[in-house]
Amino acid sequence: MYAQLVKTDADKVKSLEEMDPQERRFQERIDDDQKIEPKDWMPEGYRKTLIRQISQHAHSEIVGQLPEGNWITRAPTLERKAILLAKVQDEAGHGLYLYCAAETLGVSRDALIEQLHSGKAKYSSIFNYPTLTWADIGAIGWLVDGAAIMNQVPLQRCSYGPYSRAMIRICKEESFHQRQGYDIMMKLCQGSAAQKAMAQDALDRWWWPSLMMFGPPDADSVHSAQSMAWKIKQNTNDELRQKFVDQTAPQAAFIGLAIPDPDLKWNEEKGGHDFGEIDWTEFHEVLKGNGPCNAERMEARVKAWEDGAWVRDGLSAYADKAAARVAAE
Amino acid sequence: MGPLFEYALRMGDSCLILGHRVSEWCGHAPAIEEDIALANTALDLIGQTQMWLGLAGELEGRGRSADDLAYLRDSREFRNLLLVERPNTDMAHTLVRGFLFDLWHFHTLGALQRSADERVAAIAQKALKEVSYHLQRSADLVIRLGDGTAESHQRMQAALDALWPYTGEMFLEDQVDADLAAAGIGPPLGSVQPLWEGDLARVLAQATLARPASTHVQKGGKTGVHTEALGYVLADMQFLQRAYPGARW
Ligand SMILES: [Fe+2]
Ligand SMILES: [Fe+2]
Question: Does residue B76 fall inside a structural domain?
Answer without folding.
Answer: yes
